[in-house]
Specification:
- The chain is of the alpha+beta class.
- The chain folds into 3 domains: 198 residues, no CATH class; 101 residues, no CATH class; 187 residues, no CATH class.
- It is 31% helix and 12% strand.
- The chain has 26 helices and 18 strands.
- The strands form 5 sheets. Strands 2, 3, 4, 5, 6, 7, 8, 9 and 10 form a 9-stranded antiparallel sheet that branches. A 3-stranded mixed sheet has the order 1-13-12, with no helix packed on it. A two-stranded antiparallel ribbon has the order 11-14.
- The protein is globular, with a radius of gyration of 26 Å.
Length: 654
């Protein structure tokens, strides 16, 4: 490519769910580190974007295109006969995963002449709306060849994401090649933040426009087949049936289905007829749990090419086929690890090990979002042939009023699936809901199946997410793998030995000594002080989780949240800020998690000062939270534990 990437482009920061690791790696090692010489064609005439400009600018045609081809007909071709299903899909975030930036209702970023600054690297950009066109302005940048101009203007033409955050892609002089604005807009917080800040990754000393990333990688899961992308010296040719994930991504190409139905209708005198016989369309509800889940797994998984030495995935998987015929889905097995090493042969063993650690806990549990299929595969309920993705999730809810659709779109769960119904649809409620099994009051959060068997040990999208490998809490597993257990994620004030004793007494688990500080210090305290960045992130989120707040009390949280507010990782500071603001004394906290470091330090000092002056009763706290009977923090103990912090670089590959 002539449009060069920077040396800091890395596969450790995939963009949103559905990004295939293998394709990213291939593109990284293909990209040039040098800036091309020669003239650099300005994408637009700067004069058109003057502050007083009123000229109308068309949406740049130099971008990927979407048009149904072959046997694909697009979602509008389905809406005539399936209006209800089309309406519910239209309300989903699948639909808006990728959009053309052509109308205001598709965007929620603030382009009202704003300047955004990455304080960590001291670089600023401008974002503006000129004549209903979104523009991204940058000064001189290592990825843009010198041209003598003080500022370069690019037109934003596409977006990715619309649930929690939205990223923006701009057109480049290269054919259909997109660049990525190095800031994303957080929907709930209504603000721009550096793109690197929304991933749990070590701080960077530069940013990148990720030229070609969408064309080479994101297209694979953020659009609907048939997908096509081809790289040349002049850029890319990229197209898809439809931007976003639409009907044919889950049901397969629709043309032959329409032809079949029309043929039946002509014979019977009715149209459309109910599909029977050899209708080629795929209904995930009508196939096996395994085949049904593989449709979701084609994107929601950690997968690699089947061919050793070939790190690029160009899957031609269609719904109803065997996913294993197209990709290798990573598992926590020796054979899977061997295949991964063969596929990623260009990487060092150390890099492959780091990649694995950034995706899986040591026991094979997935630790990053968007990869739920890998977790499902390790679940006995699925292995026995019954549990599938659509056991709990639905793509087309029955309640179709607008408010119900808004609530459903959050996780696309079936009604009741946030509670025990998710499990009691197969397991006998009378047996498992009984206090003899749960050892918690029947109306308590501790008696809810999901809180014990699907704890929030997965990280992604600036929050903790439930594990999709269903298992039971085990203190020994936490000491061996570092993966927090359900008990200590709710009882934040209790030690791991406390958990081990209860699991032995209640469920007969083998009695073992966890040893060291785990005997006497709260597990949450230890993970927040000594853990790696991923463990710290999970604990920062759980300080804001309502069941944990109710069970553990909140009158000892502030000192640990102050420590986490000074974390090196932006994402940890983000979740810490939300947890702090849930405490009444800090509800109006003015803490910018990506603000200048000196400003953050002053706020942290103010937090500790307010803590020391607080009238909150701390005299009855358990010794495990390291606050003495007089309500004072045991500084020496905390300092000792901080010196043991796991500083291994973390870059969770969402």
């Amino acid at each position: 490519m002539n449009f060069a990437d920077s040396k800091h482009r890395t596969f450790l920061i995939p963009l949103f769910m559905g990004v295939a690791l293998a394709a990213v790696i291939a593109f990284v090692f293909r990209a040039s580190d040098s800036v091309p010489t020669g003239s650099y064609p300005a994408p637009f005439d700067q004069r058109e974007f003057s502050e007083t400009s009123s000229s109308s600018i068309r949406l740049a045609p130099n971008r990927p295109m979407a048009k149904p081809t072959g046997d694909y007909i697009g979602s509008t071709g389905c809406s005539g006969c399936h209006a209800g299903e089309h309406r519910t899909w239209h309300a989903s975030y699948h639909r808006t995963m990728t959009q053309v930036a052509s109308t205001a209702d598709r965007l929620f970023g603030d382009f009202n002449d704003v300047t955004v600054t990455n304080h960590a690297i001291g670089r600023s950009y401008r974002l503006a709306n000129r004549d209903s066109q979104l523009l991204f302005f940058t000064g001189n940048h290592p990825q843009i060849p010198p041209s003598g101009a003080e500022e370069h203007a690019f037109q934003v033409v596409m977006t990715t994401g619309s649930h929690h955050m939205q990223a923006y892609w701009f057109a480049t002089p290269q054919n259909q090649s997109l660049g990525l604005v190095p800031f994303v807009y957080l929907r709930e917080d209504k603000r721009w933040v550096p793109r690197n800040a929304v991933f749990l990754t070590q701080p960077f000393d530069s940013d990148s426009f990720e030229f070609g990333r969408w064309n080479d990688t994101c297209i694979g899961c953020h659009t609907t087949p048939e997908r096509y992308t081809k790289e040349s010296a002049n850029g890319f040719e990229s197209r898809a049936t439809e931007f976003g994930i639409s009907c044919e991504a889950c049901h397969g190409p629709g043309k032959r289905h329409v032809d079949y139905q029309q043929a039946i209708g002509n014979r019977s005198g009715t149209s459309p007829a109910i599909a029977t016989g050899n209708d080629p369309i795929v209904n995930p509800k009508s196939i096996s749990a395994s085949k049904s889940s593989q449709i979701c797994g084609s994107c929601h998984s950690i997968s690699f090419s089947l061919k050793p030495g070939n790190s690029v995935i160009h899957s031609r998987f269609l719904p109803g086929e065997e996913l294993s015929n197209h990709v290798h889905v990573a598992r926590g097995t020796v054979d899977s690890a061997r295949h991964q090493r063969a596929v990623l042969s260009s990487l060092s063993p150390e890099d492959i090990a780091a990649d694995t650690q950034n995706r899986f806990w040591p026991d094979g549990h997935v630790r990053v979002s968007g990869r739920e299929y890998n977790g499902l595969l390790e679940t006995p309920c699925h292995q026995r042939g019954k549990l599938s993705c659509i056991s709990c999730h639905t793509l087309h809810p029955s309640k179709q009023n607008q408010q119900a659709l808004v609530e459903w779109a959050d996780d696309q769960l079936r009604s009741g699936m946030r509670k025990d119904a998710a499990c009691t649809q197969c397991h006998e409620a009378g047996k498992y809901a009984d206090i003899k099994h749960t050892h918690h009051q029947s109306d308590s959060t501790g008696s809810e199946c999901l809180n014990c068997h699907m704890p929030h040990t997965t990280y992604g999208l600036l929050k903790a997410i439930r594990s999709h490998t269903i298992d039971s809490p085990n203190a020994l597993t936490s000491t061996q793998t570092g993966r927090p257990n359900a008990c200590n994620l709710c009882h934040l004030d209790r030690s791991l030995s406390w958990t081990a004793e209860h699991l032995t007494d209640w469920f007969g688990q083998p009695r073992h000594q966890v040893g060291g500080d785990w005997n006497n210090v709260s597990a949450a305290v230890l993970w927040s002080l000594t853990g790696d960045a991923a463990q710290r992130a999970l604990i920062a989120w759980h300080f804001n989780w309502e069941p944990a707040r109710a069970i553990s009390g909140t009158n000892w949280f502030a000192p640990y949240l102050a420590i986490l507010a000074g974390d090196d990782y932006d994402a940890v500071r983000f979740m810490t800020t939300r947890s702090l603001r849930r405490l009444p004394e800090y509800a109006g906290l003015n803490f910018d998690f990506v603000g200048p470091a000196p400003d953050r330090k002053h706020v942290i000092e103010a937090i500790m000062k307010r803590w020391s002056q607080s009238k909150i009763n701390r005299k009855k706290l358990p010794a495990s939270v390291l606050i003495d009977s007089g309500g004072e923090i045991r500084d020496l103990e905390i300092k000792r534990l901080l010196e043991k912090r796991d500083l291994r670089p973390v870059g969770l590959l969402e």
